[in-house]
Design goal:
The structure is a homodimer. Chain A is mainly alpha-helical and about 600 residues long. Chain A is built from 25 helices and 6 strands. The first copy, chain A, is about 60% helix and about 5% strand. Chain A has a 6-stranded mixed β-sheet with strand order 2-1-3-4-5-6.
């Protein structure tokens, strides 16, 4: 028998080189330093400045055409930003003016450092709600508004520090752990919670629970039915509703730009731990939304966004914000969508928006004093309702049941527990799925497609036929400690089942087990021990183990651990076809010389 | 162009069926109910009893030959069990007699329920040490020996309950999360710690730290240099050493069998939480060792051990033990090795050992009163030194650097921190590796092996040549939310690099990107969105995306999400060879009709 192709063992690499390579792949997958290669130092400095301040890159090439577009879009976004800002600040139990402050400084910071051309910076609903619920557990915003305000600034500061340092440490990929399904469920849950909170304004209740879960809110609502403003007409009589509810005003709105709040940061308060936790969680949620939005629009317009760079920009923007009376900002979907559809060209639209808000702050704030609370509630609810993306949930159900479970758990967790519980449950289930993929890898029997040397999963290709005397098994995951025992059991069961089947059908008895390693990306020492045990067990049954197409990494380790040597390189084939041909050839030889076979059987 | 093979979409399965199937694979991979199929009810009952009490299976077939072997091996093991039991009980800060009690009842229980023929049951060093360190944090064994003893019984009870319930719930696979590398490092660390603890006896110190970490122990030793029994001759003068140290005796050893300790279980003590935690951790470590040992010997002798069944047996044995003045027992390696080499045949050797220990308890215990502590220390140290398996660590370094890191972290964690810290660190690193495999999957460029239609990794096979105008990329892991963003970046970079290379070398410009999906075991909705984005990005560059060999699960989801429809089934090939042939054919057609190509380029 002649083996046409040998499975190569990759050339050995020095340890330091392979370590460097894998660290690079882990932390610098996008190779951000590529453009710095082979450049003079002065050019490197310029490129470095461009890297951290993209404004230096686009400002020199800015045209009058761009300015026209950016002016229009900036002013459009500002007109959305003002009522939205006030609403979300109320949601965070903060003075409404903070919503305006937060639409002034952070957009300016982002315009310098951000790389998205479509993002319009501002506060967002979910982190606002999170701030209210997490800080509210520590300090009552109504009883001690000043401390609460200071803690909110401090949390924003920590969120900024956390975001910037993750970006600097190239750990932006942790955002990826929030899967699409988690975000769909989480957003819908948060939207539900926010809408429920608006029952306070809509029913005109003075007392309301600080908890966010469905049970507490409903209990709070139904325990004071006598307090319901039945006059507000059970959603029926809109005019009366407005007349009565307009009695409640937003509160005092002072003229003037952002006061400096650097001195308000509370680093030594007893609430430091809660503040840091709030900062980290709101920070993560904040930039998860911002980066997702930025990426979507970048894809539409075909330019590139660097997640880590964006995180640095978001971080710096929040640090700057926390020192100038702003709370957590990011790139909300609604503003980016308005910005995009108004035709923005560069981040200058953020500057325009900031200037528009500045004028409002300087001259127009008293007007907003008369904004009725019920209008704000209506703004919030209408914004929230688009976040309940039930179509996405249906799509998840149709395509991937597991993702649907993740989505629904996030929703239920948020609505019945708290925002954190929902998030933790959904992330735990998502990670469990990843672990389960490795812990319980699929193994399958391959068959021969008619008139070819192609071997494929017999379940997927029902016309694939099995090869007499040979069992071809494919493993669909790396062989690691978490699945080594499982695979040992499972492979033994495959062989048992195949022998049972053969016994009942009277085919040629089993002689070879081919393990197809194409999809085995890696193996660890537990996995190698498992292979050794399987080989022993298969030998003991009087069968022979053959490997097909092990990859470079696997081959390297099998070689180092002497498994290749023990097994014999001639039992490792490059393709399944060649492995089967090799087995068939051996079977043929054995048939023409039955004594050897009998002897082999007796020996084992 | 004719496509010879179509990629099949697996026939749709009802949701309930596929759920049932995957639950079965997760919890019943060994299909324990297989033998119950198609049996009459009476037979099922017998088989069920056999399942839980393997003794019913082997006892009727027991022969005189077996008895001879089991008698010899049982008595041999007993002669080891007695001094070892006393030593380990001292290690756990428990009365030494408990070591003997624990070699009487639990082996009897195991002989009924256990399925290993080689395991000899008894106490083990590491859980003994863990008990001392974890309970010692709550209650001082010297100041309050009675409470400490009761807590030890209670912890043993919880360990038993935990083991049995994991077994009943088919969750035995959590043991798999302790990788081989973790165990090597952990055992070596624990052995080091145990040896350090023996310094107390060897140097004859009265006061000693209760902490187990290296720093505390060394501080404790060197802070009382004046207390050192220099008479013991700084390891030099052995006779003197013995003479002096034999002054310390083991303590009182009462005659008589195990007293009942059911009433001593403390379920309502303030230490309940610590007791449960101790029980769970010692329970896990205990059966991890027991099952690993049982499996190794079963492999030697070619019989099968069911992990879940063993866990039930261990659990019941510890529950029984906790009610009869025993503490945590399992199947220690040393005893099993002695049992095996003395020629044991069945679990009856455990019964013989138990009877031998019973006679000792009834008649011989006063003799052991004169066992010098230093001898016990020597027994422990000599047993521990074999646990420091530095050769295994060297093997890990040679074969798998990551496993070596896991091993060393476990060691360092145990020696410098505590047993729990070491375990948690090592498990976290091991799991991180599994996650990292998915989060940062390897992608590689495939090339054509000379004179074949085989395509393999160009790094592993340096003679593989690339196909002009076609980039063939293989992804080595499932596409999940954790790696979707990474893959998007990485694939874009591959295409960039390929276009740079082509530009500099002046080859045919890139027209096709083939993504080889053979090793992509599964995909979730985030992954599908990523593929859609990649397709758009590739289209926008004027290239064409082609898939090769997607598996059943992937194909099913791509079909459900309409990706197959959008892409066109004709762009999905069964093999890389066919995909390349298809691309070449198209390139040929385009060359002969250059207008179309130019138009296509302009359009994008």
């Amino acid at each position: 028998m002649e083996c046409t192709h040998r499975v190569a063992i990759p050339p050995p690499q020095p340890f330091v080189k392979s370590l460097k390579c894998s660290l690079k792949e882990t932390f610098f997958p996008d190779d951000p330093l590529r453009q710095f290669k082979n450049q003079p130092p002065s050019r490197k400095l310029v490129l470095g400045l461009h890297y951290f301040f993209p404004i230096l890159q686009w400002a020199p090439r800015y045209t009058f055409e761009f300015l026209k577009s950016d002016l229009v879009s900036g002013i459009t976004v500002a007109s959305l930003a003002i009522p939205q800002g006030i609403s979300y600040a109320k949601l965070a139990n903060l003075p409404p003016i903070l919503g305006l402050y937060s639409s002034f400084v952070p957009p300016l910071a982002y315009a310098m450092m951000g790389s998205s051309r479509d993002l319009a910076v501002g506060t967002v609903a979910v982190p606002s709600l999170l701030l209210a619920s997490m800080l509210g557990n520590e300090v009552n915003a109504n009883e001690n508004p000043k401390l609460y305000l200071h803690l909110a600034f401090t949390a924003t500061f920590f969120a900024g520090v956390f975001q910037a340092s993750l970006g600097l440490l190239r750990l932006g990929f942790i955002v990826d752990f929030l899967s699409h399904a988690t975000i769909v469920g989480f957003m819908a849950g948060a939207a539900t919670v926010v809408c429920l909170q608006q029952l306070k304004e809509i029913l005109g209740l003075d007392q309301f629970t600080h908890a966010t879960d469905l049970v507490s809110v409903l209990r709070s609502v139904f325990s004071q039915t006598h307090e319901w403003r039945w006059e507000s007409g059970v959603l029926g009589c809109c005019s009366l509703f407005f007349l009565i509810s307009t009695r409640y005003f937003v509160g005092e709105l002072k003229k003037g730009l952002n006061p400096v709040s650097l001195g308000d940061l509370e680093f030594f308060s007893p609430y430091l731990k809660a503040t840091i936790k709030t900062g980290i969680i709101t920070g993560v949620i904040g930039f998860a939304e911002g980066i997702a939005v930025g990426r979507s629009f970048a894809m539409f317009k075909n330019y590139h966004i660097d997640g880590n760079k964006e995180m640095i920009a978001f971080g710096m923007m929040n640090i700057a914000g926390s020192c100038t009376s702003c709370y957590l900002t990011t790139g909300p979907f609604s503003r980016a969508a308005v910005n995009y559809s108004a035709g923005c060209k560069t981040a200058l639209s953020n500057i325009v928006m900031a200037i528009a808000v500045m004028f409002t702050l300087l001259f127009l704030t008293p007007l907003f004093h008369y904004t009725p609370l019920v209008v704000l509630a209506a703004i919030i609810i209408s914004a929230m309702l688009c976040l309940i993306d039930y179509e996405a949930a249906i799509h998840l159900w149709q395509v991937d049941k597991f993702d649907f479970v993740v989505c629904i758990s996030a929703y239920i967790g948020v609505v019945f527990g708290s925002v954190e519980i929902g998030l933790v449950i959904a992330m735990a289930i998502s990670l469990l799925r990843v672990l389960l993929f490795i812990a319980r890898p699929r193994t399958m029997v391959l068959g021969n497609l008619p008139n070819s040397t192609i071997f494929r999963n017999a379940e997927q290709y029902p016309n694939a036929s099995n090869v007499p005397g040979v069992l071809i098994l494919q493993i669909d995951a790396p062989i690691y400690f978490v699945n080594a025992s499982y695979l040992r059991e499972r492979i033994a069961r495959w062989i048992d089942e195949e022998e049972d089947r053969i016994k009942s059908s009277g085919e040629t008895c089993l002689q070879y087990v081919i393990m197809v390693m194409s999809a085995v990306g890696n193996i660890d020492t537990s996995g190698i021990s498992m292979l050794e045990e399987i080989k022993k067990a298969i030998d003991r049954r009087g069968l022979k183990l053959v490997l097909a197409n092990p990859g470079g990494e696997v081959m390297k380790k099998l070689h180092k651990s002497k498994f290749v040597e023990n097994m014999g390189q001639e039992c490792i084939y490059l393709t399944v076809g060649e492995a089967v041909a090799g087995c068939k050839y051996m079977l043929q030889t054995c048939k023409s010389n039955p004594v050897i076979v009998a002897e082999t059987r007796n020996l084992t």
